Structures are given as C-alpha cells and as structure tokens.
What does this fold into?
Amino acid sequence: MALLNFKRTAPAQDVTVNPQVETFLKDYSIEVMPRTAEKVEDFRELLPEGTRVYIAHIEGTPIDEMVATAGRLHRDGYKVMPHFPARIIKDRATLADWIARYQGEADVKQALLLAGGVATPHGEFDSSMQLLESGLFGDFDRLHVAGHPEGNRDIDTDGSMKNVSDALAWKQKFSETTDAKMALATQFAFEAGPIIEWANSIKAAGIDLPVHIGIAGPAKLQTLIKFAIACGVGPSLKVLQKRAMDVTKLLLPYEPNDVIAALAAHKAANPDFNIEAVHFFPLGGIKTNSNWAIANGGASAVPANHA
It folds into this structure.
C-alpha cells in the first residue's frame, strides 16, 4: 500500500504484514458517534485521508451534534456517511431538513439507511425501504443498507431469515432503479465460515449488492460480549464465549486477526467473492482500532501539509 506524502504516527511494531490482509483492508471504513469523536484530537493522525467514516445516530443524539461531527470530518478530508435510522425520524419534513443540513455543512452525498434499534417508530417511517421510497436521496452518490449475516431476531422473531431475505430482494430491485452506488453494510460477526456461507447464499439468490462486512475492532472481551449480546449477534458469539472460558485468555483483549485473515484468504482465492470492504465497529476505541489497522497493513495517514 503506497504511503507517499503520508507519515506513520503509531509506534513502530515488529509485525510482519500479511499481504492478503493488507489488500483486504484497503478502503476500510469505520464508525464513530459524536461523543466518541469528541475524544479524538486529530483524526488525521489515525485514519487515512479519504476514509469513509460512518456517523452512528443513536436515539436521543441531537441532530446539531450529528451535523457538527459530519462537518468536522468533512473538513479533515473524510468521506462522511451519517446513519439515517427510519424509526427516529418524525416525518418527511424532518428527513428533508436533516439532509439539507448535512449537505450544507458537510457536502454529504453518502448515507446508511436502516430501520434503527427503536421498537416503536417516532413517526411515519418504519424501515429503510420507506426512506428509499421517499425520493429525498435522489442526488446521493452512495447509499448503504443493512445486512445481517446471522439474521436478526427483531425482524424475524422465529429465528428464520425470511423477512430479512425479502427485504434484501426489495433492495436489490431498488438498486436497479437508482444511479447511486449501493452496498450492504452488515452487523458484526466473529467467525469467517458463517460469513462466507451467508455471502455466497445471497449471491446465489440473485443479490449482487457488494458487501461491506462488519468487524468488531479490538476490545476487552467483556466489553465485546456485552455489545454482541445487545446487538443480537448470532451463532458466532460462541467464539467469544469459548474464549471467555479459557482463563488464560479471559483478560487478554480480543483482536479480529483470525476472522480477518480467513476472509482475506478466501477473497484472495476467490476474487469475485462479494465482500468488497471491511467496516470496523471500534468497540474498544477509535485509536485502538486504528492502530490495529495500521499494524496489519492499514495506513495511519497525515497529509504532509498537516504534519
């Protein structure tokens, strides 16, 4: 990976970079929230210029804070992709206002549309499909929607994949009617085998949307298990539970080396594999996640004129 005009800011580490992993990490994205972004003094010391940065919109977060975070990241040279959770958006006028504010402050042309984790909608929107149908994202360059490699109990309460699969088929058809590039941004999982099986299965079902696979960044094991349970992570949670039973590993931080290496190897052997990029959930902190990416072939990039 070229590092012209950039400098590394992380401590030097004696790590042999796996070239397959380095290739797989190219163009990775990462997720922040306004309150976590506030703790980062300078993103340019941690993330390559041009990195796609999702801004998670949690219920109760004022839109002013979301827009301010988007503006900061845009000015620092990042591709900003705010979440639009359907169930916390009151009405069409609110949605139009949010879009206008994002575009005015941060020139936002990318968005992640999802239902959101709220059980009862705040207004007229219940799903990402309704947001897409609104027509208000017509001038966006890129639209991502949610993918669920291990299903979603909130959507399919019986544990099946029926409703999730039906929604994917609808989004596939919509992608054929828009000029925006679309992709699936998925919930995080911890085991490569089920991810590969799921990715292959949706491709076989005619879903050709590229996949940006969710990966949990390095974190304390206890923290990760807590988030995994809260987010409804499925069978791959057993990877963490097995690790927790080993007292020699219980206090060691989790790192996504194994799952990333396995997916990278599969992608190298199968170039048409539909996973296009990695999307990090920095559950152990943005700096920790960024430094892991650096050590494994990512770039800690600070433009020379900011050095």
Q: What stands out?
A: Residues 18 and 192 are 17 Å apart (CA to CA). Confidence is low (pLDDT under 50) at residues 1-13, 300-307. The longest strand covers residues 181-188.
